[in-house]
Amino acid sequence: MPRETTITRTLMCRDHEAATFSYDPVARRVVGRPVVHDPAYLPLGCLDQSGRFAAPRLRAWLANRAVPATRPGLAPVLQRLGLETPEELLAAGLGLSLSDQYWLRPPDADLAWSDVNYFERPFSPALGAALAPHDPDSGSEALEAAGRDGIVIASSPDSALNGNLPKRWEARGSARLLVKSGKPESLFQEPLNERIATLLCARIMGEKDYVPYELMENGYPRLLSSCPCMVDAWTEFVPAADVILSMPVPNDQSRFEALVGACERHGIADARAALERMLVVDHVMANFDRHWGNFGILVDAETRAWLRVTPIFDTGEALWCDRPLANDFSPYRMAHPMPFLRAVGEQLSRYAGGLAWLNADALVGFADEAVGVLEMSPAIAGIPGRLKGVRAAIEKNVAEVRAMRR
Questions:
Q1: Hey, which residues does 11 pair with through a beta bridge?
Q2: I need a labelling partner for 20 at 20 to 30 A (CA). Which of 169, 269, 277, 376 fits?
Q3: How many C-beta neighbours within 10 Å does residue 354 have?
């Protein structure tokens, strides 16, 4: 497909014009000075800590919206389409996502939100199948189709689907489902972990407090996870990173307290308890990938009112799946805070209170239930001592949580 060096787009929120800007998707930079039309409809991720629009923040927001360059399977898709960067793929797909209502309208295009949004309109599965194939043959066929027909690129929300695991959107009637695979180096454990996290959440919180994941038989690899879309055509997911970077944080205040305070000022009264629930799940699951992009808030796309902390989602990279052959269940210490401390196992004790909301007895037996799911993988179950070690490590984490309940 022909490549544009610099493109001009209007950043839209549904049918509201937020800003017009020029962008070089190959160099990944905003060109010139954007023109802001309606500050009320700018993404929080485009605001600096003083709450003002900033071109560098727009550049970062666009980069975070694109498929990450580290995604397995992305390179052959870009090569087949004659593209150099994920941002080019994003621009070709109008920046449309199933996480919010922002999109990039070309100049003079007679398009409305009702013409383009994938919450209500069908979309092509070909790009998603190329990025996260059903099997080796379907991946090759989808890649071939993407190369033949450029409309595939511009008719899929998968060009604005971030995250490192192979994944794709599927439409089943009016439902929108996110389907995710795992990594071969982790023996494709991540989908099993998503299901285990769902079972944990069902034990200790209400059904609106988490996104439920189911397992799907697939054959390549054997099991995938699927979950319903967390938002709809009127609701916007705002990552916690965009919230915290759009506000001043005093040097003597933790980011946890800053985020709770911001939520409470915007009317989310139960933000602390919601974040505590997330930290409990992450502690029990030994989640080493809770970062500032996979939790946050939900916002009304029209009124801009903050609605609630997001339900818990994306807990696949957990349960020591990055150490499948080492049988190492020691606590994680990360190079960067994940999300609040580098010592992942210390976050709960640092930031949670007495966990008065928690029914600690509901955690009894969870380790056995979790191992029962992992047993579905012959590769994992076949590692000597693996399941026994996972069970003991989960029981240790559960005991630590139960000891905190006062």
A1: 19, 104
A2: 169
A3: 10
Residue type, 53: F
Q: What is the DSSP string of 204-236?
A: HS-GGGB---EEEE-SSSSEEEEEE-S--TTEE
State the architecture of 184-404 in CATH terms.
Orthogonal Bundle (1.10)
Write the single-letter amino acid at 50.
Answer: S
Pairing of strands 223-228, 102-105: unpaired
pLDDT digits (tens, 9 = 90+) for 332-343: 999 999 999 999
Alpha-carbon 221 to chain mean position: 21
Strand pairing class (7-13; 235-239): unpaired
Mean pLDDT over each residue of the chain, to the nearest integer: 92
pLDDT reported for residue 151: 46
Instruction: Return the biggest CA–CA distance within the chain.
Output: 63
The model's pLDDT over 148-165, given as tens digits with 9 standing for 90+, comes to 655 455 578 999 999 988
Q: What is the DSSP letter of 53?
A: B
Domain spans in the chain, listed from the N-terminal domain onward: 7-163, 184-404
What is the Rg, in whole angstroms, of the alpha carbon atoms belonging to the chain? 21
Closest CA to 46 of 85, 18, 10, 72: 18
* 348 within 8 A of 181, measured Cβ to Cβ: no
| Residue 395, pLDDT score | 98
Cβ(351)–Cβ(254) under 8 Å?
Answer: yes
Is 0.90 topped by the overall pTM? yes
Of 34, 33, 3, whose CA–CA distance to 17 is shortest? 34
Is the confidence at residue 126, as pLDDT, over 90? no
Contact in structure between 255 and 266 (CB atoms under 8 Å): no
pLDDT tens readout for residues 206-245: 999 999 999 998 876 779 999 999 999 999 999 999 999 9
Residue 228 pairs with which residues in a beta bridge? 177
Is residue 323 predicted with pLDDT exceeding 90? Answer: yes
Burial (0-12, 13-18, 19+ Cβ within 10 Å), 75: exposed
CB neighbours of residue 335 within 10 Å: 6
- Burial class, 10, CB count within 10 angstroms (exposed 0-12 / middle 13-18 / buried 19+): middle
